[in-house]
């Protein structure tokens, strides 16, 4: 392949001569089509401008629609008009030069000085010259009075408050000598300022403004054509009036109208110019509108292109398919096709496929010709089929497809799945893969793409398959792990209360694909731990602290389930499986399975996990109000504690007001006081929080396991003790911007408070929980904090989204090349070693190349055995 | 130029810059397998380079603190 590098791109304005030279035809007729529907000769749809109908040959180049990309035409403007996008440039040239002699308004010495500075290159000194020329009253070259040039944007020029017309402007800038223009940054060979005053207008080829024929045979013109018709009409009228010797006033009016049409032809959103409207009142989409913005040519058509072989639908969870699978609706599978080579091994299968297809598929013969297969000819085509043919068959089970959810913020936003054709109209994914896609099932839609080449298929399978993406390349920890119900189910399964009789155990083991019944370990019954052990590989050994254990230890409860999790030879000896084992990011068990075993092992684990999850449905997990009711003891204690806290706060307020309070180093008196108050409220809350949590543990530690939100909190699958506290206990201090709410009314939060009351109760302290209900004043306080939370999430997503987009765009084509360096697409060097240490985060343990503590533990474990 | 009369002393945030002799530079480029022109650039008028009195075409070695690697060396080509 010949590789060429673009050195640079220059943008200039076309000269009038160039426009005429490029032109295929001069447009003289404002009409488009005659009454028979043929394009008018010399009209805006002249066949010299290109072809938009198949079968017709271009009058300029003689080619058909496929090969002729269209030709420009031109139209001669009766009177010159300003190019609205360059009004400012003209103003600069005019402000820097003398109207009489057209020289720069600085003296020869200064010109010589500037010329020296350029060192033979072209440099723009217009700013310097402008500041100097502003002070000059008389031209240093011809001694004429210097007038003031004023631009009434976008196109009207005034000289000494008198309107000057484009003809005069053109004459003026035309005469500015070459050397003077050089100092204004003009390279004469490429552009001269008089090009900004248009005498001839380029007419774009019809191919970029095609006529659309509606069903009823009605013809509809493109917006650009409409605008050109307007320009043409006024141009003709101007011509007629000039020839008829109409009064100057009428000519000037028409001239301004021509200027308006040309201005809006380029940009229909020019400031200070009313946008040209369609008959229906819709503003016309002219040249700049076509290119600009999100829906413009660049962002919509060039940076983002539409593709074939793709499907989009709502996603729905299905725990009974594997994480690497994707349930594809039958309807979509019938539309999506995969090309397949017919070989001697799949000839019969391919023939059968053709014979039984009810949707059109294609057959590609060895000579490249395509044959559509329909119900009528499918038998004979299937007979014809032979080795060397290719068929485009429908999607079937096991095909590799790419699956994506926007916004695609990371590598795992697009992964390869194995197709599984299923009834319905929605995509089904295993809920375990929600996390990397950041998908939920409240109506999320996702896209599916089918690779069309063997290379594509293999590449997708080897590089992008879900099971190979479990460890995040960003921080070296698993991102694909059970959440919420999955974690809760394993928590319930491994609790000591969970035992199964023979029938139940047999059913569960059968679901796992195990045909041999192990020995019961709890008398005649089977423990949940035994069932869970069946999910694990037989050579797994590990030890870690469960989340439940750490919570229980914190509140000082000693219980069987607080023990360390110990897995020996794939058997769960003790401990509870919860978020510490399974969650994404911190899940120790998932982490180990993903790292120390082939990727398939974890997929099998998840597969089995999904088979035992119905346990949660069988046991029934529910929420009841009584769960949040606290004992009279706690209620009493709570009231007492709040009373004490208020007393303490009052004392603090007193010491603050008398100025006897201790000041925290680095803070002012007020800041210290606020800190103390917040701290006071927090201490009270954490005391009650501990008590409430302890009381609620009965649900989990009791004779029979009651599955409710407390299990969720202990398993860390959803919610925390704080949420429990907010409902069953009291909310505590409402906070706005990392402190107590300050603003509301003048010197108070709510009008029922006294002014300047800095006390606890007037500062947003909430002494009730949601079960009791908040007082109206507390409700206000609470809303202040809640509002800030809502605003923060709104702002944060917006700001961080844009920030991330910019970062990703700046870094997107950096590559870690084989020699370890990081380079850009043009092979420029960015880093001498990838990440300065040459370490790929995917191969690290949570970002650490070697986790020494973990390695030591592992070695110790191995020695024991 | 503003800042010309500043005391020539290293700020603690400015990493150490070392001028590499011309003959060593060639060897270094061979070692790194990089053409000298593809090096990241640094202006001759950069305050840190000014102190070294480097000419355009020289290679400057920069020793930086790094979060991931502790310390890293970086090479930049001095340009006009």
Q: Care to describe what's here?
A:
The complex is a heterodimer of chains A (865) and B (80). By secondary structure, chain A is of the alpha+beta class. Helices cover 38% and strands 13% of the residues of chain A. In chain A, the strands form nine sheets. A six-stranded mixed β-sheet of chain A has the order 9-15-14-17-8-16. Chain A has a four-stranded antiparallel β-sheet with strand order 10-13-11-12. A three-stranded antiparallel β-sheet of chain A has the order 2-3-4. Chain A starts with 15 loop residues before the first helix and ends with a helix. Chain B has one domain: RPB5-like RNA polymerase subunit (Eukaryotic RPB6 RNA polymerase subunit). Chain B has two helices and four strands. A four-stranded mixed β-sheet of chain B has the order 1-3-4-2. The longest helix of chain B has 11 residues, at 22-32. Chain B is globular and about 30 Å long. The model of chain B has no long low-confidence stretch (mean pLDDT 84). The chains are: A alpha+beta (865), B alpha+beta (80). Chain A binds chain B through residues 819, 821, 827-830, 832-833, 835-837, 839, and chain B through 32-34, 38-40, 66, 68-69, 72-75.
Write a brief structural summary.
Chain A is an alpha+beta fold and 865 residues long.
Fold-level CATH name of the domain at 310-469 in chain A: Barwin-like endoglucanases
End-to-end separation of chain A in angstroms reads 60 Å
**What series of H and E elements makes up the topology of chain B?**
EHEHEE
Shape of chain A: extended
Rg of chain B from C-alpha positions?
13 Å
**Mind telling me the CATH class of chain B?**
Alpha Beta
Mean pLDDT of chain A: 89
Name of the level-1 CATH class of the domain at 310-469 in chain A = Mainly Beta
